[in-house]
Amino acid sequence: MVATRCGIKQWFCKMTPKKIKTPLTAEIIEGLQAEDHVLLSGVVFTARDAAHKRMIEILSRGLPLPFDIRGQAVYYTGPCPAPLGRIIGSAGPTTSGRMDIYTPRLIEEGLRVMIGKGNRSEKVTGAICRYKAVYLAAVGGAGALLSLQVEEAEIIAFEDLGTEAVYKLTLRDMPLVVAIDCQGGNIYAR
Q1: Of 12, 31, 33, 77, which is the most buried if we count CB atoms within 10 A?
Q2: Helix (H, G, I), strand (E, B), or coil: what is residue 40?
Q3: What pLDDT is stored for residue 142 in this prediction?
Q4: Catalytic residue among 52, 54, 117, 120
Q5: Parallel, antiparallel, or unpaired for β 134-137 and 113-116?
Q6: Architecture of 5-189 per CATH?
Q7: Each residue of 48-73: pLDDT tens digit?
Q8: Is 52 a catalytic residue?
């Protein structure tokens, strides 16, 4: 089978996904349950280890972050350079556990949606429940396909970090799975 935007969406759509759009309201987040399939549209920000470390350093100095994190979604990815004629290169999820030492503070500051792959620590799961956030899992190894769901991409912070710079992405129907919901449901614990 040739992998195309239609191909991954047809496969995913057989699972009756919920269509959701950022910024997610508390009502939408509270209505999501672990194992739900979603198609996410709207603005998300990218950030990996180095960007997370910088954001925590900025907050520790009492300064504002380069974007308002309140109510926002962060995708743990470092997009590859865009090939000719494309908005962005491959943009697959990175292992979320690498951000776990920083994530509780960012959730406390208002981050509500995280997108990545792999299980999260007890501290992150606790913060997700306490502050009514959600963790969505993307398919690992499908970065080229996932990048087809990006309609716009712009570097907005930490350009010196190269692929780990913070991008503002506009997504259309990115297929994801609710991995940890705000009630503590966790697909990795099943």
Answers
A1: 77
A2: strand
A3: 83
A4: 52
A5: parallel
A6: Alpha-Beta Barrel (3.20)
A7: 999 999 999 999 999 999 999 999 99
A8: yes
Q: What are phi and psi of 185, to 5 degrees?
A: -60, 135
Question: Tokens 């100095």 map to which residue?
Answer: 61
| Amino acid letter, residue 52 | H
Q: Which token pair is 165? A: 């710079």
Report whether 172 contacts 149 (CB < 8 A): yes
Q: For 76, list phi and psi in degrees, rounded to 5.
A: -80, 85
> CA-CA distance, 83 to 90, in Å (whole number)?
9
- Where do the structural domains in the chain lie, given as residue ranges? 5-189
Main-chain phi, psi angles of 53, to 5 degrees? -60, -45
Q: What is this structure's pTM?
A: 0.90
- What distance lies between CA 26 and its chain's CA centroid? 17
- pLDDT band at 45; cut points 50, 70, 90: very high
Q: Are 46 and 78 in contact (CB under 8 A)?
A: yes
99 and 53 in contact (C-beta within 8 Å)? no
Q: Identity (one letter) of the amino acid at 136? A: L
Q: Cα separation of 87 and 105, whole Å?
A: 32
